[in-house]
Amino acid sequence: MSSSIVGGPRTGHFNRSGEQVVSRRIVTKSWNTINAQDSINGNNRVITPFRAVNNNGDYLARKNYTCGGPNPTSASKPGLKSRIGHILSSCDNSGVAGSSTNVKFVPDSSDYIKYKKLTSANKNYNDTSAGGDDHNGSYTYLMRVRR
Asked: Region labeled Disordered — which residues (predicted)?
């Protein structure tokens, strides 16, 4: 079985606490984005993995970068569309989308602690043993030592 299958090779119920369920949901729903990768279209990530996963900065650390995007002012009334300006675009050919966040935001230390906790939970995501051994191998070995 492939270990890259999200949730492990076996499907079914494993005894997990509510906190583990929430952690797994955050990892699969929020961290399963293109920003979690080390490179996009051959462009290596410049910002730290913490900032990339939480969308706390531009992936390539570009300053004042805009490329398309929605117009922040709505032209819902007829005749206003021609009077409302548009966002100036300075697109590059990297193929990496610009950030859609406040790049000057400084996260709290509790955010980083939560990130490290979820990173360790992500490493054990496919662990089907629920924190123990898949088989009885370690117990058998200990029993041989104790004879």
From this structure: 126-147
